[in-house]
Amino acid sequence: LETACLYECIEIYGMCLFKIVRRYYRDRLSGSMLKSEDETFLTDIENEFRQLLLKNDELNKLQQEKREKEFQAGKEKLKEELVQLVEQHLNENEKQHAVREKEVLEMIENSKHFITYENLDEKIEEALESPTDFNYALDLNGNMFKGKPLEKYNKQNLLLIKPVSEETEPLIYSGKVQEKCMENFGESKLDAWLKLQNKPAENGSSVKCLKELCNDVIDKMENVDSVEEFFKMEETNMDEKTKLERQQEAIRLKIDGNAAFRDGDFAGALRHYTDALKICPASFASTRSVLFGNRAACYMKMEKYEEAIKECNCSVECDSNYVKVLRRRASLYEMQETTLEKALDDYKRLYEIDPADSEAARSVTRLSRAIDVRNEKMKAHAFDTMKELGNVLLQPFGLSTDDFQCTKRPDGTVNIEMKNRHR
Length: 423
Prior knowledge:
Blueprint: H1 3-30, H2 35-111, H3 120-129, E1 136-138, E2 144-146, E3 178-180, E4 193-195, H4 210-221, H5 227-234, H6 240-262, H7 266-279, H8 285-301, H9 305-318, H10 323-333, H11 340-353, H12 358-394, E5 404-408, E6 414-418
Antiparallel strand pairs: 1-2, 3-4, 5-6
């Protein structure tokens, strides 16, 4: 029982006990209680306590219904927060899109002053001699670069094969929605990052607006049970070569994160692992599981244990047999008495994976005993509380709870009666 419910039961028991003692002494003092009535009186006491047990069951049922209502309310609240986050990002991305459009138009306007058909050859030579000394250029694939080009582009693919003018339509890329939408939405719902890949517009096709892209994300979310399924859905049209390249880049970021972790830069390591997760395809579940596990290790070092548990959950979702993360999550659950059962479940899972794991076997035995000890302490505390309340109620009559004895019936109910009642 929860604390509030427990105290409510204690109050009911106290009132009933007070009523029983008062009636008993009233009948004794009046001399109206005969032996047969005495037996009837005891039977009435038993019936009243049976009613108390029924009342206790009703309270338990009400508490369960209350918890279910609170859980449903929490789910609805999370959905509302998700919609608000998406709407907020829509507004921000629309503003950014307008800024990018303005920049492109300015670039096109400025291009008329220094790149024309007449001086094209001259500009090509200048670009070859100093490939970083220009405002922007087009590579052989038609991609536009403003300012200093990326290091991977050399002189050969920075040839200005055509001028940028009013008639030249630049490639416009759609934006990217990226936000941590939900921390925890049940055990099987979306509980990590929403991500929409950059989608370049094909030649001759219109650019899909950001709002439509975000609506696509929301529609797809309704049909998936986890973020990993969402990523897999997004990667349906991605070729294997691209997936492999993204995985290799994610591994490189993971190596950088490992180096930062060894140097004690846990925040920096966390950033590297997060960047790796953003690009690692969901089809490489094992790699993603390791990255989530590494993020959990960072949070543990930063003493953010709740976040660490959530990362462990994501890791196990990717790979349910990842022993290292299962052991890490079990140690996190073991830090609090309220989650000892979850720690026990993880150690049992470790023992199922490897029956030769002696540490897991010892932990199962140790935690089972710890849970029993904790439960006994809780029962003893509840009993002491009830005893103290009973003494307060019985004190005006010169009695205490020591004047009563409790016996458990075969059907599980409890019989409470006064000691030496036949004197």
